[in-house]
Amino acid sequence: MERASRTENARTSSYGDCVSAFNEGESTACSLSKPFVEDVRTKTNAFSGLAAFANAGSLNLSGNGPASQAATLYVSGDYFETLGVRAAVGRVIQPADDRATSPAVAVLNYGYWQSAFGGDARGG
Fold it and tell me: Residue 97 in contact with residue 105, Cβ under 8 Å?
């Protein structure tokens, strides 16, 4: 039974976030599944940090000036900590944000914060 579980966890999920140069730009299934990442996270000490991310596509933004589109990622709660990145203002996503009951959280990159909000820490 353990072997079947490992096989299931080793499958990839295709979010379209990887492109293989060997396939002439065709999207490939190169993402690791969430269960596999969680297995690695809990069953090994091989890494000082482990974070996950996936392409979330474009997001239509409106309500603060002209409508615009932004490229987005889904990231795990330890993404910014693993990269050693802190927020200029506010906070980054944290492990507690991974819980299904946690409210939605978004992190803006510095360039978007400057262009859409003029760098105003109050959001506008």
Answer: yes
Angle between helices 2-10 and 34-43 (to 10 degrees): 120
Which DSSP state fits 33? P
Model confidence, pTM: 0.67
Number of Cβ atoms within 10 Å of the Cβ of 33: 15
Q: CA–CA separation, 5 vs 63, rounded Å?
A: 46
Tokens representing residue 110 in the block:
């510095």
Q: What percent of the chain has a predicted confidence (pLDDT) above 90?
A: 19
The conformation of residue 3, written as its DSSP 8-state character, comes to: H
* pLDDT exceeds 60 at position 55: yes
DSSP 50-118: ---EEEEEEEEE-SSSS-EEEEEEEE-TTHHHHHT---SSS----GGGGSTTSPP-----HHHHHHHHT
Spatial distance between the Cα atoms of 118 and 124, rounded to a whole number of angstroms: 7
